[in-house]
Known about the structure:
Radius of gyration: 18 Å
Strand order of the largest sheet: 1-2-3-4-5
Order of helices and strands: HHEHHEHEHEHE
Amino acid sequence: MEAVAQALDMVARVYHANTADELRRVLPGIDARTDVLVAAPDHGYLLHRVTIVSAARAAKIPVVCQQPEYVLEGALLSFDPNRVELYRRLAYYVDAVLKGARPCDLPIEEPAKSWLMQFAHCQVARHRDPGPILMRADQVIE
């Protein structure tokens, strides 16, 4: 993330928190200098998504994440592989292995379709024209 930010002439500040207490100490560090909070795709953080999104909302900072559950709590958007499709493909692999295929002989596939969710309260994200994002969204949460 830091390398991508540098390439875009941006500064990435990375915060680490392994416990709920550490998360509560880190979140006040997001402030007006922060343009967007990118929540790591970590299931530990997913448990604290309400706390993360609430802190960002209080600081008027949009949250972008990978897991769609954050969007349901008020994050701006998530970009995630379509999990339903991933599980369908997983069933194909389980079936093939149960029929005797060796796992190492099965092809590795990339997700065919990603899923974009958009939180519709665009004033929270300070966007004046969210049209292009909304038009591409698979689901809009109002």
